[in-house]
Amino acid sequence: LFTPQDLIAGAELQLDEGQSRYLGAVMRAEAGDELRVFNGRDGEWRALVAKVGKRAVTLQIVDPARVQSQGPDVDLLIALVKRGPLETIVEKAAELGVRRIRPVITERTNADHTRVDRLRAIAVEASEQTGRLDVPEVLEPAKLDKLLDAWDEGRRIMFCDEAGDAQPAAVVLADQPPAPWAVLVGPEGGFSPREREVLRSLDSAVAVSLGPRILRADTAAISALTIWQSALGD
Ligand code: SAM
């Protein structure tokens, strides 16, 4: 990971083989071309292609282009769903500015297929495409009960509860404090009655409705994050 100290104006940066091949062979970069580099954490820098070698491309840093302005501290706790919808959820959550994505194992999820490395690659691609300067952290799947047992009370949970009589999310969030928050969305089969009872008993959790219809988990995750961002995001 390049640090801001590596990226001072005039510094030369040698790219690794994969990045060099992409720039040289795929993008046909030539010496003098201008591009932007970001390290997924601190910001974005303007750079020029200094040399396109057979095995390595060298860049020369021009100056910092944008300094990091990290979005609000909101996590997505997403119950494991089928691979396609899960990948969609990770991509859209990255676009919607989440800080961390926590895959969650609940009573009605099947956790045997989750490839976290693939989800992390999707998070990077979506972050590049959406122009954010940081990349959401994708954590290893964790059991809901374990997560809640060790829950940081300082982080409120927006619990998307399709089965209950929760108030509309926008109404509930209207008088809630800003970040840090977590948005929790259940699996295709929903939360079990026991899980719902545990979640509803938590002081740090607020149950919300996303409307009168039952949404697929990917639709629910995107809607919930959008409503959260419009109410409490920045
Ligand atoms: N158990 C549901 C059923 O009746 O078929 C399906 C669960 S839904 C596919 C997946 C998750 O999306 C739910 O656990 C909930 O977190 C969220 N969700 C879906 N529709 C919702 C709604 N209208 N209000 C709040 N959350 C919703």
TrEMBL record:
Residues 15-61 form the Ribosomal RNA small subunit methyltransferase E PUA-like domain. InterPro entries: Alpha/beta_knot_MTases, PUA-like_sf, RsmE, RsmE_MTase_dom, RsmE_PUA-like, tRNA_m1G_MTases_N. Gene3D superfamilies: 3.40.1280.10, Hypothetical PUA domain-like, domain 1 (2.40.240.20). One of its GO terms (molecular function) is rRNA (uridine-N3-)-methyltransferase activity. It catalyses: uridine(1498) in 16S rRNA + S-adenosyl-L-methionine = N(3)-methyluridine(1498) in 16S rRNA + S-adenosyl-L-homocysteine + H(+). The keyword rRNA processing applies. Belongs to the RNA methyltransferase RsmE family. Its main location: cytoplasm. Its EC number is 2.1.1.193. It is an enzyme of class 2 (transferase). It comes from Phenylobacterium deserti. Residues 72-229 form the Ribosomal RNA small subunit methyltransferase E methyltransferase domain. The keyword Lipid biosynthesis does not apply. One of its GO terms (biological process) is rRNA base methylation. Keywords: Cytoplasm, Methyltransferase, rRNA processing, S-adenosyl-L-methionine, Transferase. This is Ribosomal RNA small subunit methyltransferase E. Specifically methylates the N3 position of the uracil ring of uridine 1498 (m3U1498) in 16S rRNA. Acts on the fully assembled 30S ribosomal subunit. The lineage of its organism: Bacteria, Pseudomonadati, Pseudomonadota, Alphaproteobacteria, Caulobacterales. It comes from the Bacteria. GO terms for cellular component: cytoplasm. It is found in: Cytoplasm.
